Structure formats: C-alpha cells, structure tokens
Amino acid sequence: MGFFIADAMAQSTDAAGSPNGGIMQIVMLVGLFLFMYFIIIRPQRKRQKEHQSLVDALSKGDEVVMTSGMLGKIIEVDEGYVTLNVAQNVDLKFQKVAVHAVLPKGTIKSI
C-alpha cells in the first residue's frame, strides 16, 4: 500500500512543480467553455428567439405547419392556443408553441 501512496505523492509534486501547469488548465477550461458557448448555446438561443417571435406574430388567417406536420389555417388565436381549420368543418386546437412555420398565403389550396 505504501508503495502506491508514494507514487501518487511523487506525481502530484511533479505536476504542481511545473511553472505553467495551473495556468494552462485554466486556459483550456476557458477555451472549452467558449467553444461550447459559440457552437451550442448561442445558436440555440437564436433559434428560440426566432421561434418566439414567430409565435408572437401569429394572427387569424395565417396558414401554418405544426410540429406534427399538420397543415391548417388559423381561425382563432388565444393567449396560449390557436384553433386551426384543417378540413371542411374540422377545427382543431393546438398550443402556440407547436407551430413550426408560417406558410405563404394560398399554399394549402395548391396542395
């Protein structure tokens, strides 16, 4: 047992004895955080803001695609829900956040 402890102590004194060992670790951690921020966090926040502005701009008469792939025309907009006309005499109510995209006018008729 004493043999392993002595090795561990020898390794820790060697690593701590290097002049730039601690600074390099901090620089690497900061670099990793910046990499994660610019590659993952920032683009995700941008998409969230774009989706929120899309949801806030929904109005009666817009033709939309839901996340499920269903197409419909908005006939009513509530605080948290939209009512879609998906077929003749078929109205469905969805949460606003389920709207994936707004289509150009007349898209549903052309399909």
UniProtKB/TrEMBL annotation:
<feature type="transmembrane region" description="Helical">
    <location>
        <begin position="22"/>
        <end position="41"/>
    </location>
</feature>
<protein>
    <recommendedName>
        <fullName>Sec translocon accessory complex subunit YajC</fullName>
    </recommendedName>
</protein>
<dbReference type="Pfam" id="PF02699">
    <property type="entry name" value="YajC"/>
</dbReference>
<dbReference type="GO" id="GO:0015031">
    <property type="term" value="P:protein transport"/>
</dbReference>
<dbReference type="GO" id="GO:0005886">
    <property type="term" value="C:plasma membrane"/>
</dbReference>
<comment type="similarity">
    <text>Belongs to the YajC family.</text>
</comment>
<dbReference type="InterPro" id="IPR003849">
    <property type="entry name" value="Preprotein_translocase_YajC"/>
</dbReference>
<keyword id="KW-0812">Transmembrane</keyword>
<keyword id="KW-0653">Protein transport</keyword>
<keyword id="KW-0813">Transport</keyword>
<keyword id="KW-0811">Translocation</keyword>
<keyword id="KW-1003">Cell membrane</keyword>
<keyword id="KW-0472">Membrane</keyword>
<keyword id="KW-1133">Transmembrane helix</keyword>
